[in-house]
Each structure stands twice: as C-alpha cells, then as structure tokens.
C-alpha cells in the first residue's frame, strides 16, 4: 500500500503542534479556564503573557503572568521584545517573543490567552492558528462576573461592559465558540480539549509558522 | 448587549444537527467503531444501511443493517427507495431514503457509515456533512483484519486489498482522519466523539440539507 506522507498521522509521525488562541470579552473567565486546563494536566505549552497590572491573590509571577512594572513594560516595547501588546484600561499586556520561541521549541501544542483585539493581531500574523472565542452563558452572567471582581471600580465596570459588547460582535474572527457558563467550567474545558483533539485529526493540518 | 442570532449557541438555542459520515477502506473496522459508539450511548441517530450480504454472527436485522435479498434490493433500486447504492464484491449496499427522513426528523446528530465511493457520492449531495476517514494503524494491520474474517475467500481478500489501496489514496475527500489501531478501539471512538463535540462549537455551523 502506498505511503501518504502529506498526512503525518498516516505516515506514522506526530501531528504538527497547534497554536490555539483562547480569547473572549474581559470578565468571561479566560484565566479560570486556563487555570483548570493546566491543573488537569492537559498536554500543551502555555504562553505566559507579560502585564503591568497588579497581581491578584493566588496568582504566581512567571506562571499566571509575568508581572512587570509599567516602566519595565515600556522598555520591553522599546526593545521590541514583544510579539504583540496593548494598553487596555490603563494596564499593559503583551506577549514576549521569548515565550513564543520557547513554545515552538517545546514541540507541544501551544495555548495562548489574549483579548479580542490581540486575537485579531495574532490572526494577521498566524492565520493558521485555531481561534476559540470564550463567551458568557448570558449577558447577565458577564455583568455578574465583572461586578464580583473586587478589583473593579464602578466606572471601570461600565467601560468593560461596553467593550465586551463590542467584543461579542467580533465573533466572526473566530473558528469556534465555547460558552463558559456559570458553574460549568468543566464543560467549557472539555469542549476546548475536544477541539484540540479534533484539530489534530485534520486531513490537512493547520500548520503555523511564527 | 446585542443578541447574535446567527450563532445558535449564543442565541441560547440548540446547535443544528450534524451529518457525520464515517468511511474508510473495507476491513478497517467501521462496523466495530460504530458498534462501540452505539454501546457507549453517544447521542446520535444512526442510519441503518440496507445490504444483500449475509448476516454475520451477532448482527441484528434492522439494527446493524437491514438484511434483504438481492431481489428485494433490486426492487428498492427500481422504486428509487435508495439515496445511494453500490454493488461491491457482488453484494449490494445502499441507504434507504426513509432512514434519512427519520434521521433528520430525530433532531439529533446523524451518523452514517459508508464505503469510500459512497462517501464521495454523499459529499456531492451534502458537502456540508463532516467526513471522517477511518484508517488502519498500518497496511499490515489491514491485511491481518481482512484475513481474520472467515467470510473472506483468498481471491476476495486480494481484491479487497487492492481496492483498499485505491481507497487510501482518496483521503483528500475527507475532513478528518482517525486511526483505528489494533486494540485501541476506544481511542478511535474518543477521537470521533471529540470531532462531533468540536464541530458543534463552530462559529459558522455546517448545516446540511438532504
């Protein structure tokens, strides 16, 4: 029987690593989903974002984020150390280039968490990545989640709700939508895991060069 | 926040049922995979094919296949009772139209098992279906599986191996490839289940009209 080397699975090879971009409106629970995925030990390399925002209770520097000062962040921008960055609500967030190099060298699937603007930028850089939009179970759930964040003042809350409405309208940038319903975190994580398994079975793999 | 009715998930509705076509070379184990999927109680409607081939031990009429005589099969062809049919190795197989009507009326995802020629026909009729190619772990595994079938005579075995080689070359018709490795049936079933979950999360659902 002929060999079909254009598909790595049939050639007996490992499939190409995937780049999975997990995005969605502020407050939808991207961090909670990622935390659960990492705790479950799902096999992927997580890209740790740099941020100038304050560390929340329980967050670890270098694991959840690289927590840096505003001054250091501006230095990273000036030195072109970042693949992509944004200032949102007065806080900087960005993807360090060394994180992407490490991720690609790991040989594992790469998962990247980013806001919707950032996802649009990544899509221009790496259209073959897999774009997952995390959506709230309902608009009311999103409001509740944002209100529960003690770090938010009322003006910031209103700003975030407006931005979230705009972000929800950009769903068409994405390949998949996963609902992160209240008290159903595991279902969202399972669906993301299923997407990762399914994408590795593609006859024509989506190969990313970054 | 605006409502996004173009995506059923965000509008709080059930996603559209999928049509999943499971194909692959003769002997790869399509029947075993389907049997396991049905035993696990995965939520889908299975399209029961009509065939003129002899019932194998353990197979149930109306569940595994509709077992009919050659005469009755030719009558079904003449009456246009079949969506698609083929004569392969002197045996008829076909998809009764009433099965498709029942499947669509069920509101559940529909799974259809068919040989590679048949999958090509379904693709012309319903390009929005999801096409999964079940492949053997290796060419040697396929040969072993075909030899183990007591129903095969040596000439039939050689014919099937030749046809299987041609069928393997038609992988590009399909969306996904799943390896059905020896003693790893559950992994194949899990991957198919993941594909079904992932496809229901598409931002732009693949809606079939049949």
Automatic annotation (TrEMBL), chains A, B:
Signal peptide: none annotated. It is found in: Cytoplasm. It catalyses: GMP + ATP = GDP + ADP. SMART domains: GuKc. Pfam families: Guanylate_kin. Keywords: ATP-binding, Cytoplasm, Kinase, Nucleotide-binding, Transferase. CDD domains: GMPK. One of its GO terms (cellular component) is cytosol. It comes from the Bacteria. PROSITE patterns: GUANYLATE_KINASE_1, GUANYLATE_KINASE_2. Residues 17-197 form the Guanylate kinase-like domain. Its EC number is 2.7.4.8. ATP binds at residues 24-31. GO terms for molecular function: ATP binding; GMP kinase activity. Belongs to the guanylate kinase family. NCBIfam families: guanyl_kin (TIGR03263), PRK14738.1 (NF011325). Essential for recycling GMP and indirectly, cGMP. PANTHER family: GUANYLATE KINASE, GUANYLATE KINASE-RELATED. This is Guanylate kinase. It comes from Candidatus Chloroploca asiatica.
